[in-house]
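ok here's LysR family transcriptional regulator:
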Amino acid sequence: MENPDWNHIRAFLATAETGSLSAAARQLGLTQPTLSRQVAALEAELGVLLFERLGRALALTKAGHELLSHSRKMGEAAHGLALAATGQAQSIEGTVRITASDVMSAHVLPPVLQQLRQRAPKLTIDVVAANDIRDLMRREADIAIRHVRPEQPELIARLVQEATGHFYAAKSYLNRRGRPASFAELGTHDFVGFGDTERMIGYLDPMGIPVTAENFRIGSNSGLVAWELVRQGFGITPMSDEVAAAAPEVERLLPGSDAITFPVWLTTHRELHTSRRIRLVFDLLAEFFAAR
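and the structure:
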């Protein structure tokens, strides 16, 4: 049996101490389904049942009680380690350049950048918002967040999240043009293009969405501009569920359809192992995405 994942133990500990999945999820800043999966994963790793449901409440099993005392000791040790690491991080100086898409830079990264500011106030962070893949080898950035795994052996890449997305359009657009009931019907609607139209068509066509260049009468190589055009009623586009959740004027299309999944890769040069500042930022980003 492999050693249990600390995130799974932390989920168990919070659930045991709060007595409910919803309260534990709030405490850890996770969604309830994510927390439930982490507790279930720990049970699978250990081969035991840790909780039993009594009505709407959760009760620890005998195995759960035995694990709780060990988990508390681990939690205290982790807290002490975090305090020590935070103390060291206070003195780290220098600049770290993070490159990510403009949409991710504007809509996803700010919360983790706030954490980074608190943990390492002397560190300078330069966010390079770019939709092309910046070359880490030429040091155009120190850390890249991308949806494609790099192939260069000199780079370190970690899969930190399997993000989800769906098709979205503004309610104003849908009220005017109607709500499509199938992927095939999407082909009769206007789309807003992100960058290369032919590439988008090549992505949509295998999904059973019969679009051509005629569907893409407006678009931008800027993801932020394209998303603003969607929000203002110009048409449909696929978008990260996390980004779309912050835009009440848009509506998810085809309820019940499978999510579009796309990986989030965190990449840096092998200097990660020798640079304290890059390692700090890399680890904090990895923790941030893994918890979402």
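+1. The mean pLDDT is 86.
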